[in-house]
Amino acid sequence: MKTEHIDIPAGSTGAVLQLTAFRFGKAGARPSVYIQAALHADEIPGMICAAHLRDELAAREVAGEISGEVILVPVANPIGLSQDVLGNPIGRFDLADGGNFNRGFPSFSTALAEAVRGRLGLDVGENVTLVRMALGRLLTECPAATSAEHLKKALVGLAMPCDLVLDLHCDAEAAMHLYTHSASAMTFAPLAARLGCKAFLVAENSGGDPFDEAVSRPWFELSTQFPDVPIPFACQSTTVELRGQGDVCDEMARADAEAILGFLQDVGALTGKKSPLPASLCNPTPLSASLPLIAPVCGILTYRRDVGTRVVESEKLAEITDPLTGQRTEILSPCAGMFFARTALRFVKPGRRIGKVAGVTPARSGYLLSP
Asked: Based on the domain organization, do 154 and 239 belong to the same domain?
């Protein structure tokens, strides 16, 4: 195991934050897999899962069972991890400007197409090398002023050269689920099965420029722009939602780490005895078919269905009670599907997203992610 430290300017005189990456296996070996946790720094399940992954990967390396390269970043957001307000951690949004740490990553698709135009040929390997070099130059030239911009640039720099990228998150209260590009559904289907995902959401463009799309989407879009030359999907990524924020325990984390290690064996990054692939609990469905529950009134939120429950359209999922009048407002499912996530708040205001149901029929367009 090799340890790499990357300084992140903290935006104040004399202050520096540090990003730490652990590298397992031989540098440059393929397949290469990048795994990071807690880009939303108040989402702890990914960090404890990463702690178990670190121990297990170190043991696998000693045993000679790492055939590719694995890069692990257990704390992907030291900025957010340092933030709190009156004792409450604020890890999703940057207190400097309110920006979401997992939105607004640099998009290279247009510039990449111009950088390689007329230079691509019929050799797949040469094309991959050319594109990776072009992406590296574009990232180097990408401006960064704020601490968050420096952090995003560093994370993309670690992940972009890799074949597979896993970004570990969690929701407020949720069943296990993941997001990926539509063209990567088959690639990450074994991971979804091993993790026991109840929802598997796919899209070509979520509209928010999150981390996973920043490193993968340029490859897919380049292949559509130049259909006459072979351009593989050479960096595929997924956002894994490890249940809810309160689901922090060694038993869950150890099981999740074992599932991820099994996937690394599936793709050839690890050797050793492989566990059987379990049956999948869900099929991929469009992210545009995932519909939010919106609070129409202010009041006390009580749920009538647990996350991980399959529901029908117009089924009552929750109620909001006015504490002064006792009036109850029913919250009905907007579609049939999997009730896979909900807010941890129990007093809500009008317009608040309070849950998500993964349907099968596309019903939204444009910006598909939560704020």
From this structure: yes
| 366 is a domain residue | no
Whether 42 and 155 share a structural domain: yes
Beta strands in the chain (DSSP E): 2-9, 16-25, 32-37, 69-73, 84-85, 88-89, 164-171, 173-174, 177-181, 199-203, 236-244, 284-286, 290-294, 299-303, 309-311, 316-321, 328-332, 337-342, 347-348, 353-358
Q: Is the pTM of this model over 0.85?
A: yes
- Domain of 301? 286-358
Q: Are residues 150 and 246 in the same domain?
A: yes
Q: Please tell me whether residues 107 and 149 are part of one structural domain.
A: yes
One domain for residues 9 and 145? yes
d(CA 179, CA 176): 11
Q: Using CA atoms, how far apart are residues 179 and 201, in angstroms rounded to an integer?
A: 5
Q: What is the pLDDT of residues 282-328, one digit of tens each?
A: 999 999 999 999 999 999 999 999 999 999 999 999 999 999 999 99
Nearest to 290 by CA among 213, 355, 204: 355
Q: Are 320 and 331 in contact (CB under 8 A)?
A: yes
Which alpha helices (DSSP H) does the chain contain, by range? 45-62, 78-81, 109-116, 124-141, 147-159, 185-195, 211-225, 250-266
